[in-house]
Design a protein that fits this description.
about 220 residues; alpha/beta; Rossmann fold; eight-stranded mixed β-sheet; two-stranded antiparallel ribbon; 5 helices; about 30% helix; binds ligand PMT
Length: about 220
């Protein structure tokens, strides 16, 4: 399979030297990219700014903002059989970032916000019947309800939900615990484990969905 993975945070500029971002280390997405490569797939990894070495044998595409990430995803969309969106993309961004460094003596800046592009929602109408799109849901409350809502709203085949209210898993940790929701209604629990182990479970699920979709298409033809 051709597997496209996104990882890490995005940075949205506030002025010439400042930005708004989040605590994503990129570990989860990098682990998915490594697991995909180890399983024999061809992998492209779109990464926000992180401090991790690139996984071996994976094509790296480095981005900074949500708009950059959207452009990079669109550029590889026709190529991929599977997309796994593990990146923590900004939901909002400053509407008019200052071109210069804002001065401390001018006092706290008034920032006007606008929505950053929602990548999964933008590409949802472009999905081909055999493509598999898997998102992640980072939640502090109502994990199952919110994950299922995002699964439907973003027209995904599956979503990996993680509880990010605990500080020993999820964001910027080597550990995670996932609940994998499929559009078919199937639910799988991945108890707390290293992100490498979680990533293997995500890859196994998307491989299964890909085979099911291919099989369905084959049956339609013959
Ligand atoms: O990077 P780590 O430190 O290893 O941490 C891993 C992680 C916690 C970041 C990862 O496991 C995770 O949950 N990633 C998704 C984070 C997130 O943005 O979740 P969300 O529930 O806000 O978004 C739902 C889905 O929509 C995600 O697949 C996200 O990539 C996507 N999205 C979000 C915002 C946006 N503007 N465009 C999007 O496509």
């Amino acid at each position: 399979m051709n597997v496209l993975v996104t990882a890490g945070p995005t940075r949205e500029p506030l002025d010439a030297v400042r930005f708004i971002s989040n605590r994503s280390s990129g570990r989860m997405g990098y682990a998915v990219a490594s697991a995909a490569k180890k399983a024999g797939h061809c992998v492209r990894l779109i990464s926000g700014p992180v401090a991790l070495p690139p996984p071996k044998g994976v094509r790296m595409i480095r981005v900074v903002t949500a708009q950059d990430m959207l452009d990079a995803v669109l550029a590889s969309l026709a190529w991929c059989d599977v997309l796994v969106m593990a990146a923590a993309v900004a939901d909002w961004r400053p509407k008019k970032p200052a071109a210069r460094k804002l001065k401390k003596q001018d006092g706290p800046p008034r920032v006007e916000w606008e929505a950053a592009p929602d990548i999964l929602q933008t590409i949802a109408p472009l999905k081909k019947p055999t493509q598999v799109f898997c998102g992640f849901a980072a939640e502090t409350n109502d994990l199952a309800r919110e994950a299922k809502r995002k699964l439907r709203r973003k027209n995904l085949d599956a979503i990996a939900a993680n509880d990010v209210s605990k500080n020993n898993q999820g964001f910027d940790s080597i550990w995670n615990a996932l609940t994998l929701y499929r559009a078919s209604g199937e639910v799988r629990v991945v108890p707390r484990a290293t992100k490498e182990k979680c990533a293997r479970q995500v890859m196994q699920m998307v491989e299964e969905i890909f085979v099911e979709k291919k099989d369905k298409k084959f049956r339609k033809i013959y």
